[in-house]
């Protein structure tokens, strides 16, 4: 099995988008480039990777994504701030990102 990621993207206003993928660097790049210009993430300019979690496979990642999406905003914010208090863009330096979790 191939490991996968659950992640949270954010913008300047600290809006939250939760997603999952098997290729985190590529998926974050798609968000930043606004690959899908009519998507929610492009409309609200989600350019900052603020949290991620490595899981065993994509099925697990999707279940975890759905779990987090059902949470209140307060709980999602607490999840981000537990590891990234200042909401910095974790993708700014990928070498740090790969060691962050």
Question: Can you describe this structure in just a few lines?
Answer:
The chain is α+β, with helices and mostly antiparallel strands. Helix content is 45%, strand content 21%. It has helices spanning 24-33, 40-43, 58-70, 73-83, 94-100, and strands at residues 4-10, 16-21, 48-55.
Number of E-type strands? 3
Write down the overall geometry: globular
Low-confidence parts: none
Structural class: alpha+beta
What percentage of amino acids are in beta strands?
A: 15-25%
Query: Kindly state the mean pLDDT as a whole number?
Result: 91
Q: Work out the helix count.
A: 5
C-alpha end-to-end distance: 19 Å
Question: Main sheet, how many strands, which sense, barrel?
Answer: 3 strands, antiparallel
* Helical amount: 40-55%
Q: How are helices and strands ordered from N to C?
A: EEHHEHHH
Q: Biggest sheet, strands in spatial order?
A: 2-1-3
Please specify the SSE layout and strand pairing.
Elements: E1 4-10, E2 16-21, H1 24-33, H2 40-43, E3 48-55, H3 58-70, H4 73-83, H5 94-100
Antiparallel strand pairs: 1-2, 1-3
Q: What attributes characterize this protein structure?
A:
alpha+beta, 21% strand, globular
In words, what does this structure look like?
With 101 residues, this protein is of the alpha+beta class. Helices cover 45% and strands 21% of the residues. The chain has 5 helices and 3 strands, in the order ββααβααα. It has helices spanning 24-33, 40-43, 58-70, 73-83, 94-100, and strands at 4-10, 16-21, 48-55. It has a 3-stranded antiparallel β-sheet with strand order 2-1-3, with helices on both faces. β1 (4-10) and β2 (16-21) form a beta hairpin. The radius of gyration is 13 Å and the shape is globular. It starts with a strand and ends with a helix. 24% of the residues are buried. The mean pLDDT is 91.
